[in-house]
Specification:
With 162 residues, the chain is mainly α. It contains eight helices and no strands. It has helices spanning 8-13, 15-20, 32-50, 52-77, 87-98, 105-121, 126-132, 135-161. Helix 3 packs antiparallel against helix 4 (52-77), helix 3 (32-50) crosses helix 5 (87-98) and helix 7 (126-132) packs antiparallel against helix 8 (135-161). It is globular. The termini are far apart. The model has no long low-confidence stretch (mean pLDDT 94).
């Protein structure tokens, strides 16, 4: 396979692909990473509001299985980091949302925009990881770093602005 979108019927038949393709959000023909981030955000915010402990458990589980899921989907697609594989965006935005100074629309938007910025632009060290760390770990790690950079910028803004 190439980096073309797989048929939805193929993705929806297998739990591992359905998860790796972000419950189907990675099948969007344009900007699948942004759509995956949006779906991940919309799933995670209610968890954070109802139970931060449950949200943390979901984040840790998502990180634990993420490398395996992304590797399985990449092997299936025949492309190292197929654009439709958005589980890494789910986990990345979950991490950014989990580490906000408070849970509010303003901070959720900041986390979403910041994460998408760092995930798309890929400044150092994200770009280096994206190019040199392969497999499921590499697919996940650049998004985790994008989340960490997002959180750093948000908390620096809090420290500066007050």
């Amino acid at each position: 396979m190439s980096d073309v979108l797989p048929a939805p019927r193929d993705v929806f038949r297998r739990l591992d692909l359905w998860l790796a393709f972000g419950l189907g959000s990675g099948l969007a023909p344009k900007a699948p990473g942004t759509w995956g981030t949006l779906v991940g955000t919309l799933i995670f915010i209610p968890l954070l509001l109802v139970s931060p402990i449950l949200a943390l458990m979901v984040l840790l589980l998502g990180m634990a299985v993420g490398s395996w899921l992304c590797q399985r989907a990449a092997d299936w697609a025949g492309v190292h980091d197929h654009g439709g594989i958005v589980w890494d965006e789910f986990v990345g935005v979950w991490l950014a949302l989990m580490a906000l100074p408070e849970q509010s629309w303003t901070w959720w938007l900041a986390a979403f925009v910041g994460f998408r910025f760092f995930d798309i632009v890929k400044p150092w060290p994200i770009r280096w990881v994206d190019r040199h760390v392969h497999g499921g770990v590499g697919i996940m790690l650049d998004d985790v770093l994008a989340a960490v950079m997002t959180v750093i910028v948000i908390w620096l803004a809090v420290a500066i602005i007050g």
